[in-house]
Amino acid sequence: MLVGCALGALAASGAAASADQARAYQHWEEVLSEARGQTVHFNAWGGEPRINAYIEWAAARLQEQHGVSVRQVKLGATSEAVARILAETEGGIDEDGSVDLIWINGENFATLLRRGLLHGPWTGELPAMAFVDPAAMPAVASDFGIPVDGMEAPWGLAQLVFLHDQARLPEPPRSAAELLEWAGGDPGRFTYPQPPNFLGTTFLRQLLLDLAADPSALYQPVEAVDAEKVAQPLWDYLDRLHPLLWRAGRAFPPNTGAARTLFADGEIELTLSFDPAEAANGIAAGTLPETSRVFTFRDGSIGNASFLAIPANARHKAGAKVLTDFLLSPEAQARKQDPAVWGNMTILSLPLLTAEERARFDALATAPGLPAADALGPALGEPHPSWSSYLDREWQRRHGAR
Amino acid sequence: MVGLPRLIRAAPPATAMLLVVPVLIGTAGLALPFRWVEGGAAAALGQFLAAPGIWRSVLLSMGSALSATLLSLLLVLGFTAAAQGTRAGRRLFALMSRAISPLLAVPHAAMAVGLAFLLAPSGWAFRLASPWATGLVRPPDLLILQDPWGLALTLGLVVKETPFLFLMTLAALPQTDSARRVLLGRSLGYGPMAAWCAGVAPALLAQLRLPVLAVLAYGISAADMAIILGPTTPAPLPVRALHWLAEPDLAQRGTAAIAGLAMLAATIATAALLWLLARLAFLGWRGWMRRGWHLRADRWLRFLAIFAMGAVAALGMLGLAALLLWAMAGPWRFPDALPQSLDLTRMVQHLPGLWPPLRTTLLLAGLSTALAVVLVVACLENEGRRHRPGAGPGIGRGIWLLYLPLILPQMSFLYGLQAAAASIGPGHGLALVAWGHLLFVLPYVYLSLADPWRAWDRRYERVARGLGAGPARLLFGVKLPMLLAPVLIAAAVGIAVSTALYLPTVLLGAGRVVTLTTEAVALSGGQDRRLLALFAVMQMAVPFLAFLLAHRIPALVAPGGARHV
User: Fold this and answer.
1) CB-side neighbour CA atoms (13 Å) of B233
2) Does residue B384 have a pLDDT over 90?
3) Among B243, B423, B528, beta carbon nearest to A91
4) For the range A321-324, what are the long-range contacts, defined as Cβ-Cβ under 8 Å and sequence gap of 24 or more?
5) Residue spans of alpha helices (H) in B120-150
């Protein structure tokens, strides 16, 4: 109770004082001392051991730097934590919640924001935000088209890529049309995670960006355009593609891991990932052949930033802020971008860093399978979030029950 | 020890409270998600019915659960009938009762992963035969798993439920006086299997009613096997409920709650169907008894029954072997029959990370099982004192409530329970989860202990009392030592159940209570089959050791001693 009141006061004072550097510094000192001894429950998807290991590393560093402990709550799906925050709030737990920090984006963020369940704006309090430049990197300023406005801190950048094995498929298809043509020549060797899986839905949106007569319609809410007409080219395309898919489109891998396993087992020749370092990671871990590579469609692919948010009922807000500040630091971001560790691209703007800090990023080894900086097509913006649920629903109706 | 009889009398109401109260709260909590749906429960029902292919999903769940239940039951009955009739068969029977332990121990999800790898077109079976026999250098595009009829799912359920029903049969057989009845049947001129079917089957089936119901309910409402082996267009009902639960749009939770109710309705409907089939089978049995067909030459039938059971057990064993191999594998690509190398460094590297979830798993299993065994023993003892010899297995009607957690779909009432727990405040993590485990552990402990306990020969009691033993001395000095073996087996079953529990752990622990199973399920959404296999192997090792100890300890404590059951 006391802690909550103190935190509320701190947050309020932080927002007011953010202009004044000296007071901001003093405020951060207070956050640090408040955080000491807290245990931050960091709710983050737990499906990837490399990411879990990275979070463990960050936890150890934070303990030694600031005396804050971190426990990762490994989620199967981020919405588990969203539901928990909601259930707690409805149960009257307004300041003693079990989620301190959550790795989030897209619809989950929109849901919490809409229901007023997020703490903030708070990211202005973090010293490390000085290295983030929304002007140079628009992806960090809005989350699926919704302005972030300090309610969540950017953490990493991802881009939709295809995985292929150079030795078996030297010339992979690099547009929706080429994909269809290739599938016609070698049927049964491609599939995608079944929507509403996030990656599967993203694949649909990617196809539509490639096929739509006017892609700009996808950046408006579904209700604002003639959605049926905009999406029609996608359904026509899928009608032709599905008979050429793995199992003739009669079954789909239920999740990303299952699709990736099919690729590793050689059942399919192409699979999808949100991680440009996926091939490099797989080669390093020995789960993929050494000739595995990633690529994007020629005209680019959907880019995607992910964020860190603090629920309004979080118990350890100060600790969560200190953890976030560390995760945004050049040290942590450079390590995260290291393909040997995780390979997730930084959200920091390198020109804002000191030469010494920049060197951390320059020094990152290039690993086999890692795409050169300019090898991938441009990162396209996420369509408006309403398209995800619209396409999911329509896909279910047309292909979800045969 | 003056208070013992009083404590024992208090056991049934206390047990009922411990189990029924959370189930009631949870079921009431099923209504909670409707607040997020515009238009309430009616709108949620509308959404549920409008979901594409929803009836196919319902029928798939009912069909695969019913056929898996019937097949498993048939396999177990056939095998038991075939094996108990002859001397060689009895040796096979003993062998099988030892061999099923690992199959019992492995959780459903892990077994599904193992079977999937065994049977997939890129799986072990094809790898072993390629390319020398099949000519394949890359996996064929065959719909073996995830088939639209749910056959792969049914097979997976059969592999997992047959050992369970067999274990329950082992526990129930001593009460049926099977050896003498078979002998009687044989002397009347029946063949070995016919003698068993005529004399033992009806008595045994009466004992197996609840386990069969539990198997049926599990098949309808559990998602873990269905998500790996089941079809996806559309998926079985529990998988779709999980999807609705995972939607960022919270209104979908209302649809999930309706799906929870639908699973309950489907379970009741399928149970009614099963009851009808059982009546028909009974009529058939009576007709057969009247006609007196002796089926003396049943060699081929015995062979078939034993072969079928052996094949299912072998399939399960091979699936486990595949998992074990993957946990240690280096690169392993199609069509290599074996991994290019074994890579133990990764295993060693992950060992420190295994300890915290292992510790939590052991703690939860230990707590819930210990409490469950104490409560079940007290309940049974109370029953024995109230019903004097001759009263039969009649047990307080209230004990039926005990099976509610097994028959209600977990997903629904646990969600309501979580909401209720959240309103008390956080910070009761482990204790609450242990309680949640107790809901599922206790019925299974009861299932496996009740019959041997009741079958205990009460003449020992008269002798002990005659020698001046009080109730405490009788229980701790005579009865428990004599029933040590079944008590330990029941405890092992409890540990196996607790180890495999996923939803209760995640929902009641607010995700903070990390066990081997929650780790394995989190990993099954990822892509590292080897790490998943490693966790699955650990998951399996815990109950396996428990069963091993349960089999060994009685022999160590009293070698060749009291062998009542």
Assistant:
1) 21
2) no
3) B423
4) A321/A31, A321/A35, A321/A122, A321/A125, A321/A126, A322/A31, A322/A32, A322/A35, A322/A40, A322/A62, A322/A66, A322/A68, A323/A40, A323/A42, A323/A58, A323/A62, A323/A68, A323/A70, A323/A101, A324/A101, A324/A123, A324/A126, A324/A128, A324/A153
5) 124-129
Using one digit for the tens of pLDDT, what is the confidence trace for B318-363? 999 998 898 888 888 888 899 988 888 777 877 888 888 999 999 9
Please tell me the distance from the alpha carbon of residue B139 to that of residue B144, in angstroms, as a whole number. 12
Tell if the pTM clears 0.95, that is, is over it: no
Q: Enumerate the β-bridge partners of residue A293.
A: A164
Q: What is the ipTM of this complex?
A: 0.82
Query: Average pLDDT of B297-311?
Result: 91
Task: Give the highest mean pLDDT range of A34-43, B88-97, B326-335, B432-441.
Answer: A34-43
Using the Cβ of B56 and the Cβ atoms of chain A, whether some distance falls under 8 Å is answered with yes
Closest CA to A205 of A394, A16, A9: A394
Write phi, then psi, for A394 (nearest 5 degrees): -65, -40
pLDDT tens-place string over residues A31-74: 999 999 999 999 998 877 889 999 999 999 999 999 999 999 98
Residue-wise pLDDT tens digits, A271-286: 999 888 889 888 887 8
State the smallest CA–CA distance between residue A354 and chain B in angstroms: 36
**Residue B496 forms beta bridges with which residues?**
none
Task: Evaluate whether B508 touches B417 at the Cβ level (below 8 Å).
Answer: yes
Segment among B380-394, B424-438, B481-495 with least mean pLDDT? B380-394
- The chain B residue lying nearest A264, using CA atoms, is B333
**SS3 state at A104:** strand
Q: Which chain B residues have a beta carbon less than 8 Å from that of A397?
A: 52
Across A296-340, the runs of DSSP E, i.e. the strands, are 301-309
A291 C-beta neighbours (distance < 10 Å), count: 16
- How many Å apart are CA B483 and CA B495, to the nearest integer? 18
Q: Tell me how far apart the alpha carbons of residues B50 and A366 are, in angstroms, rounded to a whole number.
A: 51
| Paired sense of beta strands A39-45 and A101-104, if any | parallel
DSSP structural state of residue A372: P
Structure-token pair, residue A159: 């881009």
Q: For B141, which of A76, A247, A401 is closest by C-beta distance?
A: A247
Contacts of B141 in chain A (CB under 8 A): 187-189, 246-248, 267
Cα distances (angstroms) measured from residue A330 to each of A21, A129, A156, A337, B452? 21, 11, 12, 10, 66
pLDDT surpasses 70 at B391: no
Whether B355 has its CB under 8 Å from any CB of chain A: the answer is no
Strands A301-309 and A379-380, how do they pair?
parallel
The pLDDT of A80-97, averaged and rounded, is: 83
Query: Token pair of A99, please?
Result: 């989620």
Question: How many Cα atoms occupy the beta-carbon half-sphere of A219 within 13 Å?
Answer: 10
Q: Which residue in A has a C-alpha nearest to residue B253's C-alpha?
A: A83
CA-to-CA distance for B367 and B371, rounded, in angstroms?
A: 6
Chain B residue with CA closest to A253: the answer is B232
Write the pLDDT tens digit of every residue in B500-538: 888 788 778 766 788 988 887 777 655 677 888 888 888
Task: State the smallest CA–CA distance between residue B38 and chain A in angstroms.
Answer: 15
Q: Is B120 left (phi over 0), alpha (psi -120 to 50) or beta?
A: beta
CB A400 within 8 Å of CB B234: yes
Residue matched to tokens 């995608």: A192
Give B120 to chain A, closest Cα distance, Å: 10
- Do A81 and A118 form a contact (C-beta atoms < 8 A)? no
- Contact status of B121 with chain A (Cβ, < 8 Å): yes
Peptide bond into A121 cis (omega under 30): yes
Integer angstrom CA distances of residue B215 from B42, B69, B71, B162, B222:
31, 6, 12, 10, 10
